[in-house]
Amino acid sequence: MNAALTDRILLATAAGGVLLVGLAFAIWGGEGAIAAAVGATVATANWAATRFLGRASIGKGKNPLLALMGFKTMALALVCWLAITRFHLHFLGFTVGISALVLGIVLGPMLTPNAADSAATPADPAEET
Predict the structure, then answer these.
(1) Mean pLDDT: which of 58-62, 88-92, 120-124 is highest?
(2) Rounded to whole angstroms, how far apart are CA atoms 106 and 6?
(3) Domain residue spans of the chain
(4) Which of 45-54, 74-83, 106-115 has the lowest average pLDDT?
(5) Hey, which of 37, 48, 113, 124 has its CA 20 to 30 A from 86?
(6) Taking the alpha carbons of 36, 92, 9, 113 in that order, is the dihedral positive or negative?
(7) C-alpha radius of gyration, the chain, whole number
(8) How far, in Å, CA of 104 to CA of 85, rounded?
């Protein structure tokens, strides 16, 4: 697992969340911005949990931590359901906020790589075998 890449994705998710909260505020006002902030927080926490569980389970064969990924996904679905149905957050604002995860995963790898990334990646794809 490339730790620097997962760190950049986390940063891009958080930064994208801030931008999306601003967008939600411009479109729906305060109610949409609050829902987008909750969604962006959920998205960032989801990636942080995925990163933690992924790092903890590397090189351990059949690891029970991998089962926690499934529970994490169920918890994510529960949090989304609660946010919309029980706390009555603005649906579109929450959806825009949680899409920060997609934005982070797409834009994070495009950020300038660190020297450690280029040293870990072979220059020639034929060397990967």
Answers:
(1) 88-92
(2) 12
(3) 3-111
(4) 106-115
(5) 48
(6) negative
(7) 17
(8) 26
Q: Which residues contact 91 (CB under 8 A, 6 or more apart)?
A: 35, 84
The pair of structure tokens assigned to 97 is 């906020």
What global pTM score does this model have?
0.83
For residue 63, which amino acid is it?
N
| Separation between Cα atoms, residue 24 and residue 33, nearest integer Å | 5
Check residues 69 and 66 and name the one with the higher pLDDT.
69
Q: Which residues of 24-62 are buried (b: 16+ CB within 10 A; e: fewer)?
A: bbeebeeebbbbbbbbbbbbbbbbebbbebeeebeeeee
Closest Cα to residue 42, out of 92, 82, 97?
97
